[in-house]
Amino acid sequence: MQQLSAALAAVGVATLRFNYPYSERGRGMDPEPVRLATVRAAAALAAEHAAGLPLFAGGHSMSGRMFTLAQSREPIEGVRGLVCFAFPLHSGAPDVARAQHLRELKVPLLFLSGTRDKMAERSLFSQVAAGLPLATLHWIETADHSFAALKSRASSEPVFDELARLTAAWMGSRGR
Questions:
Q1: pLDDT tens-digit map of 108-157
Q2: Alpha carbon distance 111, 128 (integer Å)
Q3: How many CB atoms lie within 10 A of CB 39?
């Protein structure tokens, strides 16, 4: 996340990074209510520091999913949109059960996913995104779930620079 945060800063997007309690403890996984409370607290802290700037929320993998879940259950005050880097559509066999709540969202969504991400089967995720009128899905060629890309990648643009550029442009089109 440090590389992504630095790339976003380079294009004028400020970020707030945080840890879940289980990360601080170094073991186990927090129950879902704790993870949802954590992302809400992070969004509130970001809003405090944003001093009236447009607020977008999201994160990589589970954090992106937690922000979408939280927003679908009760809108997070001030959030103009959600950005999900490597949204974990499924953890085992490809299915869409984890995407059901996305239909409840009333804010724009940006999904950035690698074409080799084993947690987001491409044709399935494309179908999910196509059914969400406020969603934009962008595929990062040859990238995996961590955005590691193959040397055979056609683009010479570094992956994190591409992610940052696309995110900044998307936010800008929504009043950043």
A1: 999 999 999 999 999 999 999 999 999 999 999 999 999 999 999 999 99
A2: 11
A3: 25
Strands (E), the chain: 55-60, 79-85, 109-114, 135-140
Question: Virtual CA dihedral for 69, 82, 156, 90, nearest 10 degrees?
Answer: 10
Give 110's strand partners: 83, 136
Q: Are 61 and 88 in contact (CB under 8 A)?
A: yes
Token code pair at residue 162 = 């591409």
In the chain, what are the domain boundaries?
2-172
58 by DSSP, 3-state: which?
strand
State the fold for domain 2-172: Rossmann fold (3.40.50)
